[in-house]
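4.2 Preliminary Data

To establish feasibility before requesting continued support, the project team ran the inverse folding procedure on a target of 406 residues. The structure was first converted into the token representation described in Section 3, and no sequence information of any kind was made available to the design step. The complete token record follows.
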């Protein structure tokens, strides 16, 4: 696609990055067919090609409006369009730039600003865990829209105490330890059973995705630098050979640290090294080795929900399903498995109507195989789906952990 950026954008790093992405787009529209918001709303402006065109217009000098902002807000950043695109257009990076540019030019109403500030500061801060405890205690009084987010957590169980020659770092995350503490403990136990020790040095926190998705680029970069500082002593000492990230939404972010901090001379090299070490657990676990130590599956029939950040963001589709089958599970894959469940970080709070429609559609397809449980790989999807069904929804590592302990 031909571009004529204004001198202001042509001279900026964001503008140049956006231009390279825009030029790869041939405007074929294949991506619209796999875009969840286009499927729900049927409006070209709520599909990837339309959003790309709106961002291009702004970078070429058009004045963005509240309507431009709304169409970008409605994007789930699921990156299904990237998987479909035959030209390799990096839509996710482009929409990040587009959102930043529009955010700086289109003021939001006060209520919206306050809601976004609360999400940004609340979810990624150390106050989240105590605030969640208070919220859970007062769940009966909370608005219905928050009930599923305030459900009591599963017990985390014991953290493994053995040492192993092979060690990895693990990102604990920001909301996950408080919302679903069993996921990190289960990950540590499964890796321990396979001879891998998990280290969690103090000081790391949110991966930066929450701030990034709410257009706080500087705050997101500060989160990234803080995590690099926390992890670097173990990496520099050669103590670890990977950084395991068991929430696929955080994993896709950590794998992008190198690109995000490439222009920061103090951090660029370390950020690239951290990104290269980041692994989803499925990249570390050998299915045959695991099958040899699994005792008895807790249930056999499970449905698999592939988070967008795993299948589109990290391009690891098909791997977890194969591992689950290797240990004896009967795994059903829902229709439209490429489509987002509507969780998408803070989307389920900021775009509740669309998010709920996507959740209902996803749960309908997941239930079709009459599974006993739904398994997934991202805490956001798990909490969101669980809010719409009585069927247990859990991380696949929690299921494997149960199988090892049976
Ligand atoms: S499929 Fe790719 S090249 Fe075609 S319109 Fe979508 S982003 Fe552009
Ligand atoms: S990221 Fe997802 S919601 Fe956004 S345009 Fe692409 S397919 Fe549509």
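Position-by-position output of the design step:
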């Amino acid at each position: 696609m031909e571009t004529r950026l204004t001198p202001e954008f042509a001279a900026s790093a964001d503008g140049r990055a956006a231009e390279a992405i825009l030029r790869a787009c041939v405007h074929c529209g294949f991506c619209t067919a796999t875009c969840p918001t286009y499927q729900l709303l049927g409006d070209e402006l709520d599909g990837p090609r339309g959003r790309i065109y709106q961002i291009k217009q702004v970078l070429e000098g058009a004045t963005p409006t509240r309507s431009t902002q709304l169409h970008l807000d409605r994007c789930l950043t699921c990156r299904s369009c990237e998987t479909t695109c035959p030209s390799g257009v990096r839509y996710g990076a482009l929409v990040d730039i587009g959102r930043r540019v529009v955010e700086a030019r289109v003021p939001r109403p006060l209520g919206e600003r306050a809601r976004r500030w609360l999400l940004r500061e609340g979810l990624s801060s150390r106050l989240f865990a105590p605030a969640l405890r208070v919220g859970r205690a007062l769940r009966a009084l909370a608005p219905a829209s928050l009930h599923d987010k305030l459900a009591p957590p599963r017990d985390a169980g014991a953290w493994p105490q053995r040492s192993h020659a092979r060690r990895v770092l693990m990102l604990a995350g920001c909301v996950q330890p408080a919302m679903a503490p069993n996921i990190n403990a289960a990950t540590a136990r499964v890796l321990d059973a396979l001879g891998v020790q998990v280290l969690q040095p103090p000081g790391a926190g949110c991966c930066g995705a929450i701030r990034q998705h709410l257009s706080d680029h500087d705050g997101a970069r500060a989160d990234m630098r803080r995590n690099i500082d926390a992890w670097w002593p173990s990496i520099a000492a050669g103590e670890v050979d990977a950084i395991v990230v068991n929430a696929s939404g955080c994993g896709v972010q950590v794998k992008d640290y190198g690109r995000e901090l490439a222009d920061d001379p103090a951090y660029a090299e370390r950020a690239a090294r951290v990104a290269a070490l980041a692994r989803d657990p499925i990249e570390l676990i050998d299915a045959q080795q695991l099958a040899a130590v699994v005792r008895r599956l807790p249930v056999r029939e499970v449905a698999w929900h592939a988070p967008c950040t795993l299948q589109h963001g990290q391009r690891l589709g098909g791997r977890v399903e194969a591992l689950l089958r290797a240990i004896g599970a009967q795994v059903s894959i829902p229709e439209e498995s490429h489509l987002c469940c509507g969780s998408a970080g803070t989307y389920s709070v900021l775009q509740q109507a669309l998010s709920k429609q996507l959740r209902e559609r996803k749960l309908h397809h997941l239930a079709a195989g009459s599974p006993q449980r739904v398994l997934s790989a991202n805490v956001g999807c798990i909490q969101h789906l669980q809010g719409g069904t009585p069927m247990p929804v859990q991380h696949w590592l929690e299921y494997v952990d149960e199988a090892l302990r049976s």
